[in-house]
Amino acid sequence: MKKIWKKCLLCIICALLIAMPLAELRSACMAEAAGGNSAKTSKTGSALSVQLRIGKTNVTKKTCTMKAGTTKTIKATASKKISSVTYKSSNTKVASVSKKGTVRAKKAGTAKITATVKTKQGSKSAWVKIRVRAAQQAPDPQPGPATDESSILIVYFTRSGNTEKIADIISEKTGGKKVRLETVKAYPQDYDSLLDIAMEEKTGNARPELKTKIAHMENYDTVFVGYPIWHGDVPMAVLTFLEEYDFTGKKVIPFCSSGSSSPDTSFAHVKESAKGAEVSRGFWTTSAGLGNLATSVPAWLDGLGMTWNEKKEGAEENTMKVTAGGTTFTAALADNSSVTALKELLKKGPLTIRMSDYASMEKVGPIGTHLPQNDEQITTGAGDIILYQGDSLVIYYDTNSWNFTRIGKIEGVTKEELLKALGTGDVTVTFSLQQG
Ligand SMILES: Cc1cc2nc3c(=O)[nH]c(=O)nc-3n(C[C@H](O)[C@H](O)[C@H](O)COP(=O)(O)O)c2cc1C
Predict the structure, then answer these.
(1) In the sheet where 109-119 sits, what is the strand order?
(2) Burial of 185 from C-beta contacts in 10 A (0-12 / 13-18 / 19+)
(3) Residue 259 Cα, ligand 1 centroid: separation in angstroms?
(4) pLDDT of the residue at 436
(5) For 30, 112, 171, 363, which has the most beta carbons within 10 A of its beta carbon?
(6) Which fold has domain 316-433?
(7) What is the DSSP secondary structure assignment for residue 152, as one 8-state letter?
(8) Average pLDDT of 233-246?
(9) 255 - beta bridge partners?
(10) Beta strands in 60-187 (DSSP E)
């Protein structure tokens, strides 16, 4: 039976091929290749693919952070010969892009830069998201997740403090910044009056005005939203919050407490209200579960499969960011007077150094000042950052044994990964403190 079907299918395909003149077949193929963003198929059958790079880093469909006032150039490459490329910004007030792909970061916010590549085989677009940080932005008191430069916000609404207990543990575990939501009009202390007012707000689909404002929501990629269950649902003030900000592209993670009611209705309501967000599985406890939060909350967070920067005593003071070729590495810093002096220097602002290749093992460049030396015999490896003669910083990507000062190490990086960012020849490298 199967064989008969296969034969029939073959006959139909053959008949179609004969019926469709070659010119028509070609024009059908070209018409498909003429517009839209999806992968196109050329006459030879191979798909047209487009990649965006900043320096040597592939930034296609990624988020790239820039400081307001700086520029970066995007280069589009394609699997076919390019006839022309046009660049477009989704938000020119945040970041503009020139005809040549130079992105100018203007003010804090996010903008999507789309490059449309035209080839003889058709056109295709690719994008990179640019997150602009304010030039004079106050340092974030909490470190962000270890995976990238994004930050975590924990917003919570509470009356008697149960939800805050969950928020505290999330903050401890993730390093996120806690913000308590408060309304302009305070709720009554009296429980029965509160029940009535909450019911009135629910039946009237009210949006109580919020006193709490989030200054730089665009800087947070992950937002935990906590609340008590009120009349089987999320309190209306939390809906005000969810509708007041743009959650496009953010991860929203609800958590709540209740006397006994299920959180399901409220989770669905959060999902519906946080437009454009990816809403994760939420956490819920009843009053009976409040005593187990120390284990239940971390277990839930672990189950979300995300990487957090747990708050460790002094952790943020012992690392430095090293940015080259569009890639940012984190270096663990040594404990000596040279590092202390370097940190004092970096507190004034990031240090950008032009570094040159030396002996196929390192990039070296002048600091522009002299730092105290703590020389010792060191055999370097990929990622070691060294102070040479007190006035030059060196990033090693290969081995060398010498008497010099240890500054720190980019942990877990290979020679190949480093060289990908550092490139061959001269490179501009920026050193900055994690808080910046
Ligand atoms: C106005 C109001 C309505 C409530 N509605 C419910 C409910 O429908 N179901 C429930 O199990 N608990 C309900 N509760 C109890 C709270 O959800 C519960 O005590 C919660 O843990 C309080 O969190 P909080 O201390 O962060 O305010 C309600 C409490 C208030 C004040």
Answers:
(1) 63-67, 122-133, 109-119, 82-89
(2) exposed
(3) 6
(4) 39
(5) 363
(6) Cyclophilin (2.40.100)
(7) E
(8) 96
(9) 226, 283
(10) 63-67, 71-78, 82-89, 95-97, 102-105, 109-119, 122-133, 151-156, 177-180
Q: Is the pLDDT of residue 179 over 70?
A: yes
Q: Whose CA is nearest to atom 30 of ligand 1?
A: 230
pLDDT 10s digits, 323-338: 998 888 888 888 888 9
**Global model pTM greater than 0.85:** no
- pLDDT tens per residue, range 210-219: 999 988 888 8
384 CA distance to ligand 1 centroid (A)? 54
Angle ∠(432,434,436) on CA atoms, nearest 5: 65
Alpha carbon distance 163, 228 (integer Å): 6
CA-162 nearest atom, ligand 1: 25
Question: Residue 57's pLDDT is what?
Answer: 75
CA distance 88 to 113: 6
What's the pLDDT at 40? Answer: 38
Q: How far is the CA of 165 from the centre of ligand 1 (A)?
A: 14
In CATH terms, are 33-133 and 316-433 the same topology? no
Pocket test for ligand 1, best of 193, 229, 255 (most atoms within 8 A of CB): 229
pLDDT band at 435; cut points 50, 70, 90: low
Distance 168 CA to ligand 1 centre (A): 19
At residue 10, the 3 state secondary structure works out as helix
Q: Which fold has domain 33-133?
A: Immunoglobulin-like (2.60.40)
Question: Residue ranges of the domains in the chain?
Answer: 33-133, 151-303, 316-433
